[in-house]
Write a sequence for this structure.
């Protein structure tokens, strides 16, 4: 088998590498971050039975996933923002979308790879066909370069030239530890409250901590002049935006001491596709960046395992990439269309829209 390079050690890229190695295919993953723990990996993910769980079965990691997953994390709780009353408190019957911390899932994938598969601290500065140039000037040639390098993919620039655009919605991330009584308010899974184009989401993680997100419509420069290192100033700005909500709900913002992180929501145009180009392909957010409505990680995992299976079984690298793209692109376009319309539901006043 010819040489395969994956740019990006996110979930999709690691799943692809895992399945390639199961088939005895040599693969190298290049990641610009210095190590696996260079930054926090974020909150919790629900693994869907028809996408993410399928991928984990293909990767031979389903049983280990089950040991880490939290079926109780499927609980959905909704609060009235003006009264703090719990108006929805549901946990689905069965076990169709169990939760797992993103960091745990990434660790599971990393641990499944042969030592040395991931080359940390290897930033790709240029992509020309299947030739990669790294920070420092070194170049390496491959038979296939897989862009698994996320929203601002450098590999995508070489393939399509399309860049993400701001969606008009921004996220501000923050958190509370398990000792806070807001953990009990959140419940075992996800809590949501929303009104007037503003929402607050909170999610319990495996250690009981709570990851929270303030979500609202705003111009791209809404934070001009606001220093996100100044926790008090950001807190005051957000409390003003959410003025009129019940004080017990506003405690999710008012009690923050650990700081805030700005995460403006960017998306790729719909549809996003490309003419097949030998030597290059994309997966995950690099291929189909869409609103975070619970499908992105699942699709990235499925992309990675399907591409790897094709590479291990098709007569040639190019035929494998073509077959993968023929299935992945229509699927991702349809999902992106649904997510684009679902973004307004995310910020609608209908609390039931989050309990489906």
């Amino acid at each position: 088998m010819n040489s395969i390079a994956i740019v990006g050690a996110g979930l999709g890229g690691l799943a692809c590498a895992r399945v390639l190695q199961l088939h005895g295919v040599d693969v190298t993953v290049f990641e610009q971050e210095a190590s696996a723990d260079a930054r926090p990996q974020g909150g919790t993910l629900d693994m869907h039975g028809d996408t993410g769980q399928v991928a984990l079965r293909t990767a031979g990691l389903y049983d280990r996933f089950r040991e880490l997953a939290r079926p109780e994390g499927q609980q959905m709780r909704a609060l009235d923002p003006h009264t703090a009353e719990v108006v929805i408190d549901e946990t689905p019957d069965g076990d169709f979308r169990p939760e797992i911390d993103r960091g745990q899932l990434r660790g599971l994938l990393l641990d499944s790879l042969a030592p040395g598969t991931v080359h940390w601290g290897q930033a790709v500065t240029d992509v020309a066909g299947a030739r990669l140039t790294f920070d420092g000037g070194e170049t390496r040639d491959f038979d296939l370069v897989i862009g698994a390098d996320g929203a601002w993919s450098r590999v995508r620039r070489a393939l399509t030239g399309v860049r993400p655009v701001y969606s008009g919605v921004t996220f501000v991330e923050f958190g509370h530890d398990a000792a806070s009584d807001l953990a009990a308010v959140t419940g075992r899974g996800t809590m949501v409250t929303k009104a007037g184009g503003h929402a607050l989401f909170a999610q319990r993680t495996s250690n009981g901590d709570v990851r929270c997100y303030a979500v609202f419509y705003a111009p791209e420069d809404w934070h001009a002049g606001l220093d996100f290192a100044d926790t008090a100033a950001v807190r005051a700005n957000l409390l003003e935006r959410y003025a009129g909500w019940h004080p017990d709900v506003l405690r999710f913002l008012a009690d923050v001491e650990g700081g805030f992180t700005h995460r403006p929501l960017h998306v790729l145009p719909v549809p996003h596709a490309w003419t097949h180009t030998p030597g290059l392909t994309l997966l995950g957010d690099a291929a189909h960046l869409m609103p975070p409505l619970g499908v992105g990680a699942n699709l990235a995992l499925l992309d990675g395992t399907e591409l790897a299976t094709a590479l291990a079984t098709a007569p040639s690298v190019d035929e494998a990439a073509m077959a993968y793209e023929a299935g992945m692109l229509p699927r991702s376009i349809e999902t992106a269309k649904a997510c684009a319309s679902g973004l307004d539901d995310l910020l609608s006043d209908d609390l039931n829209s989050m309990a489906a």
In short: The radius of gyration is 21 Å. The first strand starts at residue 4 and ends at 7.
